[in-house]
Backbone:
């Protein structure tokens, strides 16, 4: 998966980089590096992002995320926006 493909997949899922980084337990700078092609996108990202497009996946992710304390304000805003948009 190239950085462009990764960015397009994030856009298709409708999730921001900070929120996605929070799900993965990594820094948003790393996700930005993948998106810009500065770092190799891990092989499992294609699988994970594909699964996140399945019906009901957004609700499941949000349910799991909301059980946790989100300390990253940018990630919290992105999750709120993702929830409000219906994942689109």
Residues:
């Amino acid at each position: 998966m190239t950085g462009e493909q990764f960015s397009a997949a994030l856009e298709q899922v409708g999730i921001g980089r900070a929120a996605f980084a929070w799900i993965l337990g990594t820094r948003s700078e790393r996700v930005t590096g993948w998106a810009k092609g500065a770092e190799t996108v891990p092989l499992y990202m294609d699988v994970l992002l594909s699964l996140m497009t399945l019906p009901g996946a957004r609700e499941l992710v949000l349910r799991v995320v909301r059980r946790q304390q989100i300390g990253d304000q940018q990630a919290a805003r992105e999750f709120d926006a993702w929830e409000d948009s219906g994942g689109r």
About this structure: Residues 17 and 32 are 7 Å apart (CA to CA). The chain has a mean pLDDT of 88. DSSP finds six helices and no strands in the chain.
